[in-house]
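USER:
Try writing one entry.

ASSISTANT:
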Amino acid sequence: MAGWTAADIPDQSGRTAVVTGANSGLGYCTARELARHGARVVLGCRDQARGRTALDRIRAEVPDADLVLAPLDLADLASIRSFAEEYPPDGLDLLVNNAGVMALPRRTTADGFETQFGVNHLGHFALTGLLLPKLLARPGARVVSVSSGLHVLGNPDFGDLNSERAYHRWLAYGRSKSANLLFTHELARRAEAAGADLVATAAHPGYASTNLTTAGARMEGRRTRERLAALGDRLFAQSPDAGALPTLYAATAAGVRPNSFHGPRFLSWRGSPAPSWRARRTRDDKPAELLWSASEQLTKVRFPEF
């Protein structure tokens, strides 16, 4: 696996992928490389104008790309349901749960969830549940959830999942990324118990230069903080192309194991994809089951039987 690059992606002809947040950053790079290697890629984007720009950019780089642009707002359960209902009746080979927000001032989604928990976890939980029959219709389907090394900052607080009693932006972010890993653990466990041909796995980009690092400061008008974040990106971060490699590896490489976690090789910060350390608690059945149950109750999305 040493030195794995986008050039090592196996032929994806005949496969269909959904990539959330595909209009920029890691999602854009992921969608472009999947299309470059023959996959039909559905770009799930909240902002359709930005999504159209991304689609046009990919087609400029990959003239024969098979792309579909579809509206998808992970902060709105109605939008998620609409996306799933309008998805074509044929199967789905790959779902990349990539879209995310990071360290924002406290906001709520259309359904009243704290935004980081709502978008990063609950939105993708609901989307996966609604698309699961499509995934199970294809042999060897995969669900890749993009987490973060910063999951170490905290576990979901089951007494305050929406941070209503207290809100700390980085703690809320870490909890949402732990939720991604707990969700992956439980989805993998359920698929294995049912004998389903489905790989649930996760990845993280290390420190990659994307618009997530400056978004919170920009929302609050904190120009100095925004400039410092941008400077850190220029000095220390790897490119979005490099940051997307662990996701692409998890999505396409042979032999990827259920419930695995891949990130950059060097200190989980930068470099080619490699197995990544994760907190032991993100492999614990009890909190994973509790989160699954709470997520079904909050989203009103119940996963069908495998």
About this structure: The domain at 8-299 is CATH 3.40.50.720 (Rossmann fold).
